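REQUEST ID: PR-0412
SUBMITTED BY: lab tech R.K.
PRIORITY: routine
TASK: structure prediction, single protein chain
INPUT:
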Amino acid sequence: MPRSPYSRIQYQFGPGPLTPAVKALLIANGALFLAQLVMPALTSYGGLTSAAVLESLWIWQPVTYMFLHAGLTHLVFNMLALWMFGVELEKIWGTQAFARFYFLCGLGAAATTIVASLLPFDFANFLYVTPTVGASGAIYGLLAAFGVMFANRPIYMYFLFPVPARIFVLITGAITLLLSVTSSGGQMAHLAHLGGLLTGWLLLMRGRGGMMAELKYRYTKWRLQRARRRFDVHQGGRSGGGWNVH
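STATUS: complete
OUTPUT:
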């Protein structure tokens, strides 16, 4: 009995199965969050504190802060965004290039936080001695990359309003900048977000050489492969001598 064509329809939620780097990051962030619950001092030791980095040379903090979070909600939303935006980027770029980009954006966010803590403003004194934690800076870099590479892909703003990815990134960046200027005591997170977003954008917009050229090449190759599949040639016809093109 012939199968109905409707039986081949498949439904997929989100970007699909986990890719290797995204999976490893999800596991690492989840494991360290559990470690934070058992050892609260881990937040002070591994979180990004400008005073500790500059005065005590705790140079691991610009990396370790990316794997620590301020609470379960903070962790869940960051990991959800990592899955939503990271999986497709890793599929295109490959695991190694994706991981490099992710960590560079996280380091860019850390550098922004440290520089901001040295500014002659009141909030900078608080920022200088207070730990900053979270993967948000690196994930905002992924968001910038997603907006550049999938400019017209619709994203639901606040899960309600579909807007093109490039507009979503611009709105998110503008809101982050506004909050970093106007919010009292909350500049730390917003500056880190903004630093990651700008780092991701600058990496993709910089010159033609280096890693970013490789990422763009991988994206172009991926698009060509997708287009080629639409015109695959298959043998067909009554006697097998004809050809069908789809």
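NOTES: The radius of gyration is 22 Å.
REVIEWED BY: pending
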